[in-house]
Fold:
Amino acid sequence: MSGREVISLILLFAVARVNSDDPKPFDKDKNVEIDGTTVTLICPEDSAKWEKEGKEAEGEKTENKLVINKYTDKNNGLYHCVNSDSTVSKQKYYFYTKLKVCEGCVEMDMSYSLGIVIGDIMITVGVVILIYMCAKKKAGPAPHQRAAHSRQTGAPPPPEPDYQSLNQATRSRDVYAEARRKN
Structure:
């Protein structure tokens, strides 16, 4: 790189660093609070002036907080705060909000959810054991099985008494008793 290119690169970085509109990083977990339908934005600077998308922001303004009661979808957007004191640099802090809030919602932590799942599994296992015990009492003891070696091999089992034996007299008069050729 030539000397001219190095100087141009240094100048470019210096101009980019001087730009005061660059958002200053801050901890969003400490700067946005949600409680039901109330959203509170907290500016890291004192004596803050709040704007939403270039216009003055609606809501209750305190020294460094913007409190939006009954937050709805129309409140979503880009907010920023700037220190209104003229002696301090005009650093802007940006808040982009796209929130879904509801009244009466409860935030559940992981241990509470895990407790519900484990409790549900324990109740289900208890019901299965109860059904097993009731079914076992109702069925009684299992019938005694014969030993496998005392079984006769090769002999067919005796016929069931539910079936009638064929009667030759009635058999011949049935429609399908004989196979006939069609001429």
